[in-house]
Design brief:
Blueprint: H1 23-29, H2 32-51, H3 53-57, H4 69-74, H5 87-93, H6 97-104, H7 121-124, H8 127-157, H9 172-181
Length: about 180
């Protein structure tokens, strides 16, 4: 019998019954399909959490509390208790570029999380994973440029004549450089 609740359109993963197998383990061995499966599970748990009464009882509403063991195992930002590394740290360290790309495209990725040695995932990244991080920052920079352009157009068409200041914001590549230098 499985220890998780089946989500819609989700095939059971036989590894889910192995309690020591987490998303970090899947990132370590390069098990892309299981990483995707854990990410789908985590989204289901997160949606349930945000809809539940548990969210209302929290003192700090921004803090996500793990509902049970399976939830903790599927959280891509959960840290290893000894190394404090997330699944993104591990996929970067062990040269799993496809998993790195998948984890970077998750909302609230762990790109700025430090491990026990104060290292960020970018510090551990192999060349192929570093390439994925560079692509990610370029995509973010393009999105920021589009948002700036959209805001500038809105400010020009605004009837009150107020201008929106768009100076002083870092671009994606500049952010990546500053992140690496941290």
């Amino acid at each position: 019998m499985s220890t998780y609740e089946q989500c819609p359109n989700d095939d059971p993963n036989p590894i889910s019954d192995v309690s020591s197998y987490t998303i970090r383990t899947a990132a370590h061995v390069g098990d892309y399909e299981t990483v995707k499966w854990f990410l789908r599970r985590h989204k289901v748990y997160l949606e349930k959490y945000l809809e539940s009464d548990m969210y209302d009882d929290c003192e700090d509403e921004e803090e996500y509390k793990h509902v049970d063991e399976m939830d903790l195992r599927s959280d891509p930002n959960a840290k290893d208790p000894i190394t404090l590394r997330t699944s993104l740290h591990i996929s970067c360290l062990f040269n799993h570029a496809k998993i790195t790309r998948k984890l970077l495209n998750e909302p609230l990725n762990a790109l700025y999380v430090r491990d026990v040695n104060e290292q960020l995932p970018i510090h551990l990244a192999t060349p192929s994973c570093l390439n994925e991080i560079v692509k990610y920052f370029k995509q973010q920079e393009e999105k920021m440029d589009l948002n700036k352009k959209h805001l500038a157009e809105e400010s020009k068409t605004a009837s009150d004549g107020n201008n929106i200041a768009l100076h002083g914001e870092e671009g994606g590549m500049e952010t990546m450089y500053n992140l690496y230098k941290m």
